[in-house]
Every structure is written in C-alpha cells, then in structure tokens.
Amino acid sequence: MSEGKKTKFVTAGRDKKWTNGVVNPPVQRASTIVFDTVAEKNQAMINRTNKTLFYGRRGTNTHFAFQDAMVEIEGGAGCALYPCGTAAISNAILSFIETGDHILMVDTCYEPTRDFCDTIMKKMGVETTYFDPMIGEGIRDLIQPNTKVLFLESPGSITMEVMDVPTLASIAHEKDIIVMLDNTWGAGVNFSPFEHGVDISIQAATKYIVGHSDVMLGTAVASEKYWDQLREQSYLMGQCVSPDDAYLGLRGIRTLDVRLRQHAENSLKVAQWLANRPEVDHVRHPALESCPGHEFFKRDFTGGNGLFSFVLKSSYPKATTALLDGMKHFSMGYSWGGYESLILANEPKSFNSLRTVANPNFEGTLVRLHIGLEDVEDLISDLEAGFERYNALVLEKEASL
C-alpha cells in the first residue's frame, strides 16, 4: 500500500542507513573520507555517484537523507543540492546549454533568473526569448531549432500569474526541449511537477522547505532522463552545501505540510478582506478569480500558501511609504516562506526593468505580502491601521490640489 503524502513528510529520508537508529539523521560533517584498504577506496570510487561516502563534496549521510526526502516528496530520480535557490536555477540551466543554444524564459521569472540570462548566458552566446506567462499554445511560435530549455515559474514572481504548465510542457517535449520549473511557490506540496510534464523541478529551499528564515539552500530534482547530467555537471561546477543546512532543510520538511496549510488559511482570509477594501483595485491570490490563471490553479494545484499580491487603485509613493513604515506585525524584507509576515511595495514603473513582454496592465502600486503564522486578526488590524495612514496622506494630497 502506498503512503499518503502527509505520511511522507514524516518518513521521507529516514532510512535506517542514514539515521542509525535515531529519529533524525545526524549531522555528519566531512571533507575527507578515509579508507582502510585499496579495495574499499576503489569500491567507494565506483559507487561515488550513488549516495556512497567518497569525498565531502559528493555528500555525507546527512545530504543523502535530504536528497532522498526531496525525491520522495516531489518525485523524479535524484536531487542536486545548491547553496541557494539562485544557484539551483543557474546551475540547472548551465548543466544543459552550450554556446549557440536558445532558452525560452517566462517573462515573470524571479529577477535574478532574468539577470543571469541577460548577463552570463548572453556572454556565453546563449540567446534568451522572454514570453508571456499566459501564452499557452502560442509558445509554438517562439520555438527555434536551437531551443534547448523552456523555463517556467508558476505562479509568476510578484504578479502571481499561474501558468498552464501541462500544455507548455507537452509542446516543448514534441521538440525534445527540457522543461524546467521554479517550483518554490508549490514547495513540492501543492504542485506535483513530474505529474504535469516538468523535467527538472527547482526550489529555493530557503523559503518553505526550511521555513524559518535562517538558511540559504537550493534544490533541483530531475527526472531519470536528465538526472545523471544534472548531477555530474553540478558537481563539476563545485556545487555543494553544508551538512548543517541540509539537516535544517530535512527538519523543515517534517512540518512543511502543516505550515503550508496554515499559511494558506491565513492568507486567504487576508486576501478576501483586502478584496473588499475601497483602496484596492484587485487581489492577485491564485485561489481568487481575480488572479490571472486562476483556472489553472484550480486544476493543477492542491492548495496555496502565504504569498500573494494586491494592487492599489492609484500610485502615490508617499502614501505607500506611510502604509509600510508604521507596520507592527509586517516587516519589510526580501525572501519569504518563513513563519513571519512580510510586506514590500512595487510601483508600476518598476516593472519596466523587470518585464519585456508581460508588463502588468495596472496603474496602481502593487503590494506583495507574505502571510505568516500570526493571528489573522492581528495582521488585518495591522493592515487596517496602514490604510488609515495611507488614506490620511491621500486626502492631504487631494486637499492641496
């Protein structure tokens, strides 16, 4: 009988060969692995790519346990580890492209992903074409004979567009194009990448996997077809992580499902409250119809989390600053996925440097929230007070006209 998903979060990566009889796999720190005989050393060399102690950069039992857990949760054939999510993205791409290749990159990707394509990839002679996240079947028109990678991120960074991943993946596979997905929002819990045609699922495990805002960590889980190449190319580029960080990622998995469900419950309540605020034009929460691609969220995702955005009816930076500066429970900070609530604002003009084909068609300020595990009533009260500060400055401006 197969295990339920909730059970997997408790049992994943806890094979006795990693735990040695204790509940949690111990933190095993090592650079040099020593052998008593030539035969032992040679055997380790033969099996060095298959979770065998050989050299610290190949991993220790702590790393192997975390890698096993990620594969049990997301699927795929193997998991490569990186010191952060950006390293996971860049090295996954680097593992499969060469000079003269072409990448199709969703226009709503994470900003460092775009920077990587526009600098490192360009310098290497790799062309990038950005496409609208809602392109669907239209992706066929952008495929070139040298297209090697189709890179997706769903929902999109900041503006939260949910993509039709199965359709895009199916079209890409007709041309033997590798489909990569930044699956950080889905976290391996709410979106099953390999059931939807993805070849390599990438996460900033810094976010929900770790869940406590105290570790930088990246993962890339690959299908059997691409696992060997991803593993060996990443190894050649020197990618490895601290066993302590791998341990904290593994510990985070134990409560991942429970945390995400609470984040999702809290965020939906806040999103629904915001949708009724007179200052708000619309809310971009995948679970709400006002979010682009909501129909794909309903079809492909099993739940949400704490991250979403809302758009104000106008852009008045001074008032937005007043809203943000007086927060009690929301802090301003980059990243997300921890237990705490965060808030950041983006003026419409800021998207001019972030987007080339999918500029959002709104004129108001976009505010991105990460809803943490605090009492929802406290968060709503905090936002309500923020709107009072915001409105006071808006009225002051109107009175001066």
Assembly category? single chain
Helicity range: 25-40%
Largest sheet: 7 strands, mixed
Count of DSSP strands: 12
Q: β content, as a range?
A: 15-25%
Order of helices and strands: HHHHEHEHEEHEEEHHHEHEHEEEH
Instruction: Tally the helices.
Output: 13
Overall structural class, as computed from helix and strand content, comes to alpha/beta
What spatial order of strands do you see in the largest sheet? 1-7-6-5-4-2-3
- Any idea what the radius of gyration is? 22 Å
Low-confidence stretches: none
Average pLDDT reading: 96
Distance between the termini: 71 Å
Shape: globular
Overview of this protein structure:
The chain has 401 residues and is α/β, with parallel strands linked by helices. It contains 13 helices and twelve strands. A seven-stranded mixed beta sheet has the order 1-7-6-5-4-2-3, with helices on both faces. The chain has a five-stranded mixed beta sheet with strand order 8-9-12-11-10, with helices on one face. α6 (111-123) links the parallel β2 and β3 (127-131). α4 (61-74) runs parallel beside α9. 48% of the residues are buried. The model has no long low-confidence stretch (mean pLDDT 96).
